[in-house]
Design brief:
The chain is α/β, with parallel strands linked by helices. It folds into two domains: 2-168, Ribosomal Protein S5, domain 2, CATH 3.30.230.10; 195-434, P-loop containing nucleotide triphosphate hydrolases (Rossmann fold, 3-Layer(aba) Sandwich), CATH 3.40.50. Strands 11-14-17-10-18 form a five-stranded parallel sheet. Strands 1-2-4-3 form a four-stranded mixed sheet. The chain has a three-stranded parallel sheet with strand order 5-8-9. Helix content is 37%, strand content 17%. It has helices spanning 40-43, 45-55, 82-92, 122-131, 141-147, 161-168, 202-214, 228-234, 244-256, 281-285, 295-298, 314-318, 321-326, 369-377, 381-385, 398-402, 410-427, 441-447, 452-465, 469-485, 493-501, and strands spanning 2-11, 14-26, 32-35, 64-70, 104-106, 109-110, 116-117, 136-139, 154-157, 218-221, 272-273, 286-287, 292-293, 303-306, 328-333, 336-341, 345-350, 389-392. It has 21 helices and 18 strands.
């Protein structure tokens, strides 16, 4: 008897359909044959399925049985096929009578006791099930909670093989999982890092507010102990809440990487990633035998913080150039080619020199000019071109450190950021843009128009600083964000001058 169960495989962050075909009653020595390009984890599923069936008071087929994972040219990974294989065996052997299986997409790992275990990619599978016209999807509990965010699909939480068999056989009812409501957004904890704890650094705080308001990339330069890392850790706290569509994109990536809403992706919060400078190119960009998301994709719609920027491998930094420009990265491997979204806000920090004390009035710099040159040369000009704001974070004085009063609280900064983002939302409505940093060149003349006086001012700055055409566009976008923070309809002279001053590395301030 032949049974067919619908399931899925992950390819990047997307799910593709897989059919589990189970055929029993074949002549020959009783055995279980698994075909369809399975990896080791899939091959081992037969042992897990044997034990799960036995411990669920169900029987294995007494004859030779062939299980095919179609299509046969797609490599299958992981233990997500345990549950559909077990159910297919039950149907093929007549232990489960169900004529509704074509309505369902099923995935789940089984323990030896028959209980289900968490799997990754639940959201992507739900999107696939809806697109394929399936009525419902059966998943383990954590993945089911994610899948419930997809509208137009019934999601059932399966805790064991026995429960799935009884439900599909009509012996017990199950209620679909209720998706979390928007009101379920967790309030910000009083222990969350707050900008009120940052003393001094008013120029850096201003640059951070501009960067977040427009989604611009930011580089902080300063000696050790000036607060660069403290400031970076507080940036997610002033970012606006993502829309449900943005959050679904975020969760889809993290779900494919094995992260969950209960873990690293709290409901309706933006991601913040801070990889160590020893990270590999694949860890940063993504890849693997079956290409998966890297840190830049995990930071999609959020923040990617690179501390000690010059210490990162040159090759890793250079491959950031295209993703920063396009908002996506394409990875080609022998198993296939995938395109992953990675529209993130880059926040980087670096010392002014190898010893860190160039320009510090209280410490003497021990670096030779050639050492400083080599240190700076680790960051290429094309990469610096793609960073909109360069801001210095000077060392704090003892007086500033002893001051009882801190800076402005994150809540006040977040209010101004959300006001500026709302202006941008109205401006770009219907264009697919979310913030000024994503403005294409075709929109610059419309939304960043300059009169002749300001045009001459910008031209003079471009010539004196030897800036590129890319830097020209980015100065205009930053000036537009500064004007939004001032609630000005047009870019004025103070806005443009402030935007120009954030090209400090172009002025070679460390020479």
């Amino acid at each position: 008897m032949l049974a067919t169960i619908g399931s899925a495989a992950l390819l990047g962050i997307d799910a593709v359909p897989v059919q589990i075909e189970v055929n029993t009653g074949e002549s020959g020595i009783p055995d279980l044959i698994l075909v369809g390009l399975p990896d080791t984890a899939v091959k081992e599923s037969q042992d897990r399925v044997f034990s799960a069936l036995s411990n669920s008071a169900l029987k294995m087929p007494p004859t030779r049985t062939t299980i095919n994972l179609a299509p046969g040219d797609l490599r299958k990974e992981g233990a997500i096929y345990d549950l559909p294989i077990a159910l297919g065996i039950l149907v093929a052997t007549g232990q489960l009578a169900c004529d509704r299986l074509h309505h369902y997409l099923i995935a789940g790992e089984l323990s030896l006791s028959g209980a289900t275990r968490p799997i990754k990619g639940g959201l992507a599978m739900a999107v696939l099930a809806r697109a394929a016209g399936r009525r419902a999807i059966l998943l383990p509990p954590v993945a089911a909670q994610e899948a419930a965010l997809v509208e137009g699909l019934e999601v059932y939480e399966i805790t064991s093989l026995a429960q799935a068999a009884r439900y599909l056989g009509g012996q017990i009812p199950l209620s679909p999982v209720t998706p979390p409501r928007r009101a379920a957004v967790a309030p910000r904890s009083e222990h969350e890092p707050d900008f009120a704890e940052i003393k001094g650094q008013h120029a850096v705080r201003r640059a951070v507010e501009i960067a977040v308001s427009g989604g611009h990339n930011l580089l902080m330069i300063g000696p050790p102990g000036s607060g660069k890392s403290m400031i970076a850790r507080r940036i997610p706290g002033i970012m606006p809440t993502p829309s449900l569509e943005e959050y679904l994109e975020i969760l889809r990536i993290h779900s494919a990487a094995g992260h969950t809403m209960q873990g690293e992706v709290p409901y309706l919060q933006r991601p913040a990633r801070a990889p160590h400078h020893t990270i590999s190119d694949v860890g940063l960009i993504g890849g693997g035998t079956l290409p998966g998301p890297g840190e830049i994709s995990l930071a999609h719609h959020g923040v990617l913080f690179l501390d000690e920027l010059p210490e990162f491998r040159r090759s890793a930094l250079e491959v950031l150039r295209q993703p920063l420009e396009d908002g996506q990265v394409t990875i080609s491997r022998s198993a296939g080619k995938v395109t992953l979204p990675c529209r993130f806000m880059l926040v980087a920090a670096m010392n002014p020199c190898p010893c860190g004390y160039l320009g510090d009035p209280r410490h003497e710099c021990r670096c030779a000019p050639a050492q400083i040159q080599r240190y700076r040369a680790r960051i290429s000009g094309p990469l610096l071109d793609r960073i909109d704001l360069h801001v210095e974070a000077p060392a704090l004085s003892i007086t500033e450190l002893r001051a009882d009063a801190g800076g402005e609280a994150s809540a006040l900064m977040r209010e101004r950021v959300e006001t500026a983002r709302q202006l941008q939302y109205i401006r770009y409505r219907g264009t697919g843009l979310a913030c000024n940093a994503r403005m294409p060149p075709s929109q610059l003349k419309k939304f960043c128009a300059l009169d002749s006086t300001l045009g001459d001012l910008l031209q003079q700055a471009m010539e004196q600083l030897s800036l590129s055409a890319r830097a020209y566009d980015r100065i205009l976008k930053v000036a537009r964000t500064i004007a939004d923070l001032a609630e000005s309809e047009s870019i004025r002279s103070p806005h443009l001058l402030e935007a120009i001053q954030y090209r400090s590395l172009d002025r070679n301030v460390f020479y």
